[in-house]
Write a structure and sequence with these properties.
The chain has helices spanning 8-12, 32-41, 58-69, 71-74, 80-90, 94-104, 110-122, 130-143, 147-156, 167-177, 186-202, 219-228, 255-260, 320-334; strands at residues 165-166, 207-208, 214-216, 241-243, 263-265, 287-289, 313-315. The chain has 14 helices and seven strands. Helix 9 crosses helix 11 (186-202) and helix 10 (167-177) crosses helix 11. By secondary structure, it is mostly helical.
């Protein structure tokens, strides 16, 4: 259920659930708030029992995956290690296991499985069936979010896979993007982020992180966000993101991609050695995350930051060469 609009008492003449009459009602929703409003409307608030539908355990997930792919394929010695890795990337999400398993049921060679892993590493939407069967369903959850909640969710997609995102980072993002209109005190901003994170958790869009005050994205939810930000702006979604965090690239995206981007994340791509020369302005770019690019050697010396008039968020943590460049850049501007 997406909305608490059904009156079962009127439609089905179902009695109010009580221990005495043995009546029980089972409903499913991604939104806890919908379940609560539904039972309140039905006059059964005291009878509500929440049963979270958790991810499948690894052994259960593997069993389902083998059923969908076919044991003759997954049991092949040359394929089994790759099948295990593809199964791991589903991260226990039944819908992803079923769809990806069905897709892989026709791939019987080692090369095909290696290619599937490559596609999953680059973007799950490249693999047949994911976009139509998984993302097209999950996007409804995204559309049910308020704009400020959508923005926060998409910000989380800029971090690497399985990354523990400190909520203080989300506060920084909200300040830089000016999404917390009318809130001026830092403590109030932190409280608001707590509220928004709670709503995203209740909508199953965010998970608890491994550390205090941190959150994580399920791999499939992160891929959903990346897919959303790659859609055409004519679909009324957000301008293009370039979320390349932690993917092991050795070359930064081409300058033509920077021109179109709203947010760029190259976090923890340690092997990148240079950034592109930008011949034109990047009029929309307001978030640039270069955290952890520690071995960069070549930084454009002409108008690099000047080409980013809308830049609001710039993260250069552990980028010592870039920090030295920026210090020189701003010193020259003051002279």
């Amino acid at each position: 259920m997406w909305e608490p609009v059904i009156d079962l008492g009127e439609i089905c003449n179902i009695p109010r659930p009580k221990k005495e009459n043995g009546c029980k009602i089972l409903m499913a929703s991604r939104l806890i708030s919908v379940a609560i409003k539904f039972v309140i409307g039905f006059g059964a608030r005291d009878s509500l029992q929440s049963i979270p539908v958790n991810k499948l355990r690894p052994d259960e997930a593997w069993k389902v995956f083998v059923q969908k792919v076919g044991e003759p394929i997954t049991s092949k010695p040359a394929i089994k290690p790759f099948a295990k890795e593809v199964h791991r990337k589903c991260d226990g999400l039944p819908l992803a296991i079923v769809v990806i398993g069905g897709t892989m049921s026709t791939r019987e060679t080692e090369g095909e499985w290696k290619d599937a892993l490559r596609e999953l590493d680059q973007s799950a939407s490249n693999l047949g069936g994911i976009e139509e069967e998984v993302f097209s369903r999950l996007i409804f959850s995204f559309e049910k979010l308020e704009p400020i909640e959508q923005s926060l969710f998409l910000s989380c997609c800029l971090f690497p896979e399985d990354h523990n995102i400190n909520k203080e980072k989300l506060v920084d993002f909200a300040i830089g993007e000016e999404t917390l209109f009318g809130i001026h005190q830092l403590g109030d901003m932190r409280n608001k982020i707590d509220v928004l994170v709670g709503k995203l958790r209740n909508s199953s869009m965010l998970d608890d992180g491994d550390y205090f005050d941190s959150v994580k994205l399920h791999d499939v939810m992160r891929e959903l966000g990346i897919w959303i930000t790659s859609l055409s702006t004519s679909n009324n979604y957000h301008s293009k993101f370039i979320p390349k965090a932690g993917v092991g690239i050795i070359k930064a995206p081409d300058a033509s991609e920077w021109y179109k981007a709203l947010r760029i994340s190259l976090i923890n791509n340690y092997r990148i050695e240079s950034l592109p020369q930008l011949p034109n302005q990047c009029p929309q770019l307001h978030t640039l995350l270069l955290l952890g690019i520690s071995f960069i050697k070549d930084i454009p010396q002409v108008n690099f930051l000047d080409h980013m008039p809308a830049l609001r968020i710039l993260d250069l943590s552990s980028c010592f060469e870039i920090l030295r460049f920026c210090q020189t850049f701003y010193t020259s501007m003051e002279m």
